[in-house]
Structures are given as C-alpha cells and as structure tokens.
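Input chain follows. Return structure tokens only.
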Amino acid sequence: MGRDLRVGGLLSVGHALIELPVVLLLGLGLLDVDPTNVMLWLGTVGGMVLIAFGLLTLRSSTIAPLPGVSAAPPERRPGYLSLVLLGGITSASNPYWTLWWLTIGVAYVVQALVSGPLGLLAFYLSHIAGDAVVFVSASAVTSKVGGVLGGRGYRALLVVTAVVLIIIGASFVISALGAIQ
C-alpha cells in the first residue's frame, strides 16, 4: 500500500508543478488568452492524447498481468521523476484541465486575490492539497481493484476505461475541428 500512495503522491506533485505557473500568471494578471483559440488547440491535441492513452490502455488490457500473479521477469517500475513528469503531462494535456482554469480557476484566483498574495497562496496550497487527496485515493483504490475483480474483471475494466477515453478524446477532436470556420 505504501508504494501505491507514493505513486498518487508523485503524480500529484507533477500536477501541482504544472498548476503553479498558471496560478502565478493569473494572479499577476499576465495570462490573457483567447479561450476560443486555446480550446481549439487543446481540443485537438488533448483529444488526440486521450485517444492515445485509450489505445495504450486497450493494448495493456491484453497483456496486463493477472492480479496476484507475479510476472516473470518483474517489470521495471517507473522512477520518481517519471511519475512527476507523467502527472504534469497528463494534467496539461487534458482539455478539461484548461477549461477548468479558464473558467472556475480564474474565478477562484480573483476571489483569493481579495486577500492579497497570502490569499492566493492559501488558495494554491488548499487546491493542491485537495488534488493530492484525490490522486492518492485514486492510486490506492486502483491498486486494490485488480485483486477484487479478478483477472477477467480487471481486464474488462481496462477495456471499458480505454473505450471511454477514446470516445471522450474523439469528441474533443470532433468538437475542435467542427469549430474551425
């Protein structure tokens, strides 16, 4: 269980590191973007990333070791830096992440700035603490789900997850390309 918590924690660190410049730029009033262009670009690129993650998940569903059965030889686990980078890349490539920051996130930053720089710091720290709870909890639950579902159930869950990622990614790409005039 300790490793599972570390994985979620490291992914969360990557996520927090990507969010720090966004909060700072918003707080300083330096992030002025055209949401239409950003969403067009992120809808296309982010959608393609989600499709790629879905395809990789689909592929891994056919080769995933059965829970409780050790694969020989033991697979190499990603290092700390790899997990931090993965947390940042996954967050930044998610179109929902950008949409959240362009809408709800901006509102929170503006509200936090009423209390000055300490308000912004308090917002950022509480925000990343909440994110960390989600990442660590999801990591812990995910590591236990395989044992509960068994081999076939675990692989079926991977297939369903992969299909959902592909559908969401395709919908982003179609929406973004449909917005081109």
